[in-house]
């Protein structure tokens, strides 16, 4: 299974957050949503999780 990556640097913020989360898709969505709530002050909603999921990228593995 291809691991997924959520990278805060791709979403502009006042904090200039640099956190990157890598893992299986559901793990990353859950962790990124928790991060968005605890650090960035968002509300954990289905819309937030859908936005996180839409922005996930496949992990690039060196050849």
Automatic annotation (TrEMBL):
InterPro entries: DUF1059 (IPR009409). It holds the Pfam family DUF1059. This is DUF1059 domain-containing protein. It comes from Streptomyces cinereoruber. The lineage of its organism: Bacteria, Bacillati, Actinomycetota, Actinomycetes, Kitasatosporales.
């Amino acid at each position: 299974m291809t691991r997924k990556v959520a990278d805060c640097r791709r979403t502009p913020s006042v904090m200039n957050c640099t956190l990157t989360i890598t893992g299986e898709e559901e793990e990353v969505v859950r962790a990124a949503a928790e991060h968005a709530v605890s650090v960035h002050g968002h509300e954990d909603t289905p819309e937030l999780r859908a936005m996180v999921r839409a922005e996930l990228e496949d992990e690039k593995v060196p050849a």
